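Hi everyone,

Forwarding the result from last night's run.
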Amino acid sequence: MYRICCAALAVIAGLASAPAQAEFYLYGYTGLSFTQDDDLDISQPGLGTDLSISGISYEGKPFHLPPYYGGRLGYYFENPALRPFGIEIDVLHYKMIAQTDRTVGTSGSYLGAPAGGKVPLGTYVDGFEISNGVNIYSLNVTARQGFLKDEDTPEGKVQLYGGGGLSAVRLVPDMFLVGQKDAIRAEDKWTGPGVDAFVGLRFLPFTVWGDTHLGLFAEYRFTHVGQTELPAPNGGTAEISAINTHHVLFGLGVHF
């Protein structure tokens, strides 16, 4: 799925060599993530574990290392037939850390013993986190509407924008289970395609040099990753249900 981003870079490079004028933008950003509760099914046939856990809650800890971060490179078409549309590639890194003190629903068996009922997640799971990243590599289509237009910023100093696209997703989970010495530590798992959608407000207050404008933005974003199988300790597997996350972003960059 990483080929999505390679293809996007090739498209943007081709557009950059076109004779028609264009507007590019480059941003870095940080933000907050709020992942919805989901379910986890853990299977370890050799140990007698076939455990279903429902209603796992997560926290994002965006300012703990590694922090929440992202970047994007985009292009707005100058052809009147294509305005106000553009394309962009976006790279996002955020974390989801299971709250082991929260009550979850359980059923099935764990290490050969029956499991069931409402218990703290820590009864069976010492730790489950994707703290080295839910890493999302997106190719998006975007459109904008400008306000406060002048000769210096013909597309508007204030711009309302939105869009969406598809993504390749790399998950890097860690998992520690109660009563088991073996653990999963930072194992990569590629999956996808993911889906994302966003809406935001951008402000271009002034030029910094030549025709290059400083840009600031605030944005709401939603990302979806479908059901994915992850490794579990002792040769097992852990199937996580859809990862649905809400994001609030703040970014700084340039238009050129």
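The chain has one helix and 18 strands.

Cheers,
N.
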